[in-house]
Amino acid sequence: MSRYIYLGIVLFGLLFTNCKEKKTEPLPEQPKETTAPEPPKKVLSPHTSAMAMIGDAHIHIDYSSPGVRGRIIFGGLVGYDIIWQAGAHMATWIETNKDLVINGEVLPKGKYGFFTIPSKEDWTIMINKNWNQHGKDDYDANDDVIRFKVTPSISDKITEHLEYKVNKLSETEGTISLAWEKITISFPFKINQ
User: Which tens digits make up the pLDDT trace of 165-182?
Assistant: First the structure.
């Protein structure tokens, strides 16, 4: 038995000595966790504008341009016979530094909300005193300065993003157009002399 005790003491001594003499090396540095910055989210309805000089009149249209993205737009996303802010988010607005004549009526120089009521046949265009509103939340027909109808043209070609254009026809005349999905509407205007 004393032999086993002796052997136990020797083993314990060896272990104790090995543990004391064993050098511990520092752990290798762990790579720091890095996260790549997230790419900026793609804006689905980018804010944009259309403008032109017609003679000395500056016409400016400001809007957010939603995409079709495989959806049915008119009669789907944008319901028929319902007021639409003619863009996304904030109401589309139009500004002119000269009086314009649209559909035989004078639009005094200034800034206006631009609204439509799409339908299968004719669209109603409304140019409204209240230009600074979210969507059509505060639309009031009593604030319409000019209201008239246009007939849309339908194309087989899809315009992916809503697009406005101000086209110069002469030094005193132009057109304003809106195109999205397969629909284009357009109306003429004159500079009020």
Answer: 999 999 999 999 999 999
Concatenated DSSP letters of 110-172? EEEEEEEE--SS-EEEEEES--S-BTTTT--GGGEEEEEEE--EEEEEEEEEEEEEEEESSSS
Who's near 85: CB < 8 A, 6+ residues apart?
Answer: 91, 92, 113, 115, 133, 135, 136, 139
CB 90 within 8 A of CB 130: no
Report CA-CA distances (Å) from 122 to 119, 125, 150: 6, 10, 6
Q: Say if residues 179 and 186 touch (Cβ distance below 8 Å).
A: no
- What's 11's DSSP letter? H
What token pair was written down for 101?
């004549």
Kindly tell me if the per-residue pLDDT of 140 is higher than 70: yes
pTM confidence score: 0.77
If pLDDT is split at 50, 70 and 90, which confidence band does 193 have? confident
Q: From 146, 173, 57, 60, select the one nearest 111 (Cα to Cα).
A: 60
Q: Measured between alpha carbons, how far is residue 44 from residues 38, 47, 68, 103 in Å?
A: 17, 10, 10, 34
Is pLDDT larger for residue 25 or for residue 189?
189
